[in-house]
Structures
1.
Amino acid sequence: MPNLNSAFPTVRGRRLRQKPALRHLVRETNLSPADFIYPMFIVHGQQVRHEVISMPGVFQLSVDMLPQEAEELLKLGIPAVILFGLPAQKDPLGLENFAPDGIVQQAIRTLRKTAPDLMIMTDVCLCEYTDHGHCGVIEEGQILNDPTLEILGQAAVSHAEAGAHIVAPSAMMDGQVGAIRQALDEAGFPNTPVMGYSAKYASAFYGPFRDAADSPPQFGDRSTYQMDPANRREAIREIALDINEGADIIMVKPALPYLDIIRQAHDTFPNLPLAAYNVSGEYSMLKAAAQLGWLDEKRVALESLIAIKRAGADMILTYWAKDAARWLSE
Ligand code: PBG
């Protein structure tokens, strides 16, 4: 490597920045609507399109609203959605999560019928469905790991039976990917991929999501199962465990405050597709600043998304999917 500091004036970095076409030619990272996975919140009822107060532009939708939404997504070039269900009733186990006529199952069937080209992913967890709002089964105030695995397996199979293309466990229970893989295989779904929320941190950036999904924990927090934001080595260990259990796609979540983790995951595991979840709080904070006129939403959103790709993500779960797809085609 020559010493670039002493190369001026022979070397001038600005030479390659003179025109948009030239800048485009030397751009190292590109963003496309094909990179996006759009999260959707499905509620019971009819003609429901209820905006989430802390997430302007994000709506809870009833199943009858989905065909129109799917058509819009496909037109914009967005290949995939991830579904979150809000049940009619919550209970300690989250029974609607694996009910044949549960809200997510209805949504999957409707989307499969009306938008056959859309990839349907489902979030597999308990917190949206349980009355205590935790991601696992509770006994005497403890979140139990192994009994939760069976429920996660049942939910994944139920989603696959309804027609989900990919299931994505987000409960951060040990062994969840392996348990789901085994349950899917035994139920006759060996070809349904598992996307593990492998390195999922106990993050306050999930705050607005918990409004959208009505899933805040009713006591305590999630720090006995989600990861400590201070840890980096542990993320690599969690991802390795998911890969050993059969994960087809791995994920880091949140994205922007964890770009170092995304980079290291990409470099350590270059042979697996890597997803990053640009979570609710990352969206809401920029939205709020934009609404106050303090930031230019289009530019900060696209800059955030390109940063997540530059860090090494192959795909991004983002509430900006539709807006970003529009901005990219302008
Ligand atoms: C379910 C789940 C959460 C998110 C995705 N799946 C919430 C949580 O763990 O509390 C957060 C997504 C977001 O903030 O956008 N466990």
2.
Amino acid sequence: MAEVVILPDADAVGALAADLLASVVRERPDAVLGLATGSTPLTTYRALAALGLDLSAVRGFALDEYVGLPTGHPQSYRAVIDREAVQPLGLTPSLVAVPGGDPIETAGEDYERRLVDAGGVDVQILGIGRTGHIGFNEPGSSFASTTRVKTLTEATRRDNARFFDGPDEVPRHCITQGLGTILRARHLVLLAFGAAKAEAVAAAVEGPVTASCPGSAIQLHPRVSVLLDEPAASALRFADYYRQAWADKPAWQGL
Ligand code: GLP
């Protein structure tokens, strides 16, 4: 099962996740990192940048991208990844891939090929949406799905409207790594903060494994770390056990 770690706040989670990423990169300077967008990974990127490692050989693959935004749009995930991850971390832009492009019909297969050619993702950072989505895999997504174009739910469009001038500006389509793609990464690190995520986190970690909660796919993966602040952990049934397991964790074990 997943290892669930509950910490006081997003900064503490970011520091722990950054330590994990740093240890992977120290071992393998050209490690393949799975990058997420949204507000959730920001404390991790900040903490990792503060460690001052040389990350110029690291390869990165973004989880998802909007379809239909003009090239260079500040809310395209290409622009977000450049701003929030590539620049602060000192990644090499040409080594960081974002799905999408022209023709969109074959962009998913193309991205899958690039992931395979890179040897797969060593550590995949994940946020979770209130609909339970990981990447942009909305409820109903197949657990075997690969990178493809999807339609966003209205709930997700509303949640993401804060980044746009208005709700109508949010694209209706996206291209996202599939649940099957995400499950191929060697280590999944799911981060969540705030009470608004508590239900989605509980459903993903402790609920039934079901396409109705795409995040529950993590229960099928042999190596998952779920790093939460207290409010995001507030609906977990076994929170006390997770706290105890973390407090009593053997020093040799690591995440
Ligand atoms: C977005 C992204 C996801 C992200 C999630 C949560 O729509 N496509 O990759 O994990 O929703 O976003 P946030 O971290 O801003 O709460």
